Fold this sequence. Notes:
By secondary structure, the protein is of the alpha+beta class. The protein has helices at 12-21, 34-45, 97-111, 126-134, and strands at residues 3-6, 50-57, 60-70, 80-88, 117-119.
Amino acid sequence: MLTIRKASDADSAGLQELYLNHLAAEPPKELPDSHQWQELLGELINMPNYFLLVGEQDGQVVASVTLIIIKNLTHNLRPYALIENVVTHQSFRNKGYATALIKDAVTIATDHRCYKVMLMTGSKKESTLHFYEQCGFNRNDKTAFIGWL
C-alpha cells in the first residue's frame, strides 16, 4: 500500500535513487555533492510553498512529485502551481502511484486557491502524454517554450 507524504531529510537517499536512476532516460554522468544535496533538500522541504511529495511503500520511497505554488498579481491575486519531477521507480510503475501523487498535488493547489496547475514533460511518448491527460491535464490549451540556461 502506498503512503503519500511530504518528504523529510530522511528521504535523501531514496530521492537520489529516484532522480538519478529513474527520472531521465539517460542518468546524469556525475553525482551532486552530498553536502550540497542535503543542504538544498533541507531548504526545499522547509519552504512554505514548495511541496516535495513522496510515495512510500514498505519503507521505500518509490515515487515523487514536486508542486510549487507561485504567488500572482493577476486572476484576483490567486496563485498558480507548477508540477515538476514526476517520477516512479521502474519496478513500481503502472500501479497508479504517480496518479495518486499528482492527485494529491492538485488537491494541495486547490486548497491554496490556485487558479491553475501547469505541468510540462520532455517526453514525446504518446503513452506519457495520455497519462497526463488521464490525470486531468490538457495539452492543447497552452504552448510551452523552454530557454535552457
